Amino acid sequence: MSDHALRRTTPQAGPTTTDERESPTAVRLEDVTHEYGSSGGRGRSSEDRTVTALRDVTLDVAAGETVGLEGPSGSGKSTILHAVSGLLVPTAGRIQLLDTADLTSLSDRERTRLRRHHVGIVFQRFHLLPSLSARANVALPLVQAGINRSTRRQRAESLLEQVGLGDRIDHSPGELSGGERQRVAIARALVTDPDVIVADEPTGELDTATGADVLDLLTDIGRDRTVLVASHDDSTLAVANRVVTLRDGRVVDDGR
Known about the structure:
This protein is α/β, with parallel strands linked by helices. The protein has a single domain (15-251), classed as Rossmann fold, CATH 3.40.50. It is built from eight helices and nine strands. The chain has helices spanning 18-22, 77-84, 108-118, 134-144, 149-162, 178-190, 208-221, 234-237, and strands spanning 25-36, 51-62, 66-70, 92-97, 119-122, 196-200, 226-230, 242-247, 250-253. It has a six-stranded mixed β-sheet with strand order 5-6-7-3-8-9. The protein has a three-stranded antiparallel β-sheet with strand order 2-1-4, with helices on one face. A hairpin with a 2-residue loop joins strand 8 and strand 9 (250-253). It is globular. It starts with 17 loop residues before the first helix and ends with a strand. Residues 27-256 form the ABC transporter domain. Keywords: ATP-binding, Nucleotide-binding, Transport.
């Protein structure tokens, strides 16, 4: 989607060599296991009934790489995205995001701060606030980050222009199509200029043609950011540099 190629909103370093681009690791999971239904993360009780969503997952994602996660429902795709973004703390294992210490050792506040500044999230069902305009939805993460109103409006409007919604800035989600709502969600994910984007079934609620437009946007995003995208859809996974296959919470093929 060259007419609306997405650009970072803050200055970036100069060009790097191929070796420099390939060497840094943006995301690293080491022996990550997660059980749902336990009594609370690492303090779980053996008496609780649990469902193991991840089993000893080890995975490296290089800076600037787009990695697809594929597998049947219940294979652990969404759980990986939630763990990488700090929305959940796995039962066991380590997660390193960018240059942080083990993400699982951080407090809730520290994980929230890290996510707010470095991770953008695109959900399948958009998760937009129905009472807010497209501009206000996109600007919301900047409110939470303490950015002044003028800068929030300018950045939100610029991103909505870039995703092709310059004429829909003041519309509420209820006045937008599914594809337009997902574009708003993508703009919101980008508004803090994050280093990492996680996208969970980003075309799952869209028809084929609209989904193709959203995939164009994801391709643009992947040009200068690290992207993890989970999907059942082959056309969505085609935007990835490599595809990691999961079965029953385990990585059975890391795509290398």
